[in-house]
Design brief:
The chain is an alpha/beta fold. It has nine helices and seven strands. Helix 1 crosses helix 8.
Length: 269
């Protein structure tokens, strides 16, 4: 986690941000950047052990943070999450739909349960959370929604049918909600990260029973990412903070690619 300050520490002062999947990886990086910019951050996860460690780290950096356990696949749980955060803080200015599930699986043998697990988390969860915060944001005169997508569905990606289908749906949902809710002062955008070595990505470079193959990871970054390095969670977090700031007032329905140019180049050999 790195909440490096590149924005004024009071940029988002008085704002309340709710980040799903905020206990680890990209979500925690986003929460750290928002906190560093002065926002009060509520992080949500279905795993309380992730929340405890993340909250301790954020508070250690001086951030105001609360936690809420939820499963974004369950609309009733999502409703309780939003009710609790809005009740505790009086408002929700920013929702970051970051909670996601993913794994490699051949499409021909992908089970219905595996398909549902990813699509319900990535796509259904994004919709449930957005729908749940809508009345809160409408009543307070507006708000911001930022959903985390991906780039793999732009060109297709073998063994990722469930995730690519779900994230393509997130892109379409972003554009539709942006048009529907603009009149209520709610902006809706998405960010499509490229290769960021979260724990899930590291597993792809880890042989059975071993540690991550760091030389292979470095070689991949040099070959496949035009800017020559892996992404970092704060690369995404800084853009979320920008969109949550006054600079994002007139931006809606957009999907921002943050990937070092990798999807444009493909995997260079």
């Amino acid at each position: 986690m790195n909440g490096t300050r590149i924005f004024p520490p009071d940029l988002l002062a008085g704002k309340v941000a709710l980040v799903t999947g905020g206990g680890t990886g990209i979500g925690l990086g986003i929460a750290a950047c928002l906190s560093a910019a002065g926002a009060t951050v509520a992080i949500a996860s279905r795993k309380p052990e992730h929340l405890a460690a993340a909250a301790e780290a954020l508070r250690g950096a001086g951030g105001g943070v609360t936690t809420v356990e939820t499963n974004v696949r369950e609309p009733e749980a999502v409703a309780r999450m939003v009710e609790r955060v809005a009740g505790e803080h009086g408002r929700i200015d920013l929702l970051v739909n970051n909670a996601a599930g993913n794994f490699y699986a051949p499409s021909a043998t992908l089970s219905p349960n595996a398909w549902r697990a990813v699509v319900e988390t990535d796509l259904y969860g994004t919709f449930y959370c957005s729908q749940a915060v809508y009345p809160v944001m409408k009543a307070q005169g507006g708000g911001r929604i930022v959903s985390i997508s991906m780039t793999l569905h732009y060109r297709g990606w073998p063994l990722m049918a469930h995730a690519t289908a779900a994230k393509a749906g997130v892109d379409a949902l972003t554009r539709t909600l942006a048009l529907e809710w603009a009149g209520d002062g709610i902006t809706v955008n998405a960010i499509a990260p490229g290769p960021i070595p979260t724990e899930g990505v590291k597993k792809a470079f880890t042989p059975p029973g071993g540690a991550p193959d760091v030389p292979a990871m470095d070689e991949f970054a040099t070959r496949a990412i035009p800017l020559g390095r892996w992404g970092k969670p704060e690369d995404v977090g800084h853009l979320v903070a920008f969109l949550a700031s006054p600079a994002g007032d007139w931006i809606t329905g957009s999907i921002f690619v943050v990937d070092g140019g990798s999807w444009l180049a493909g995997e260079r050999r």
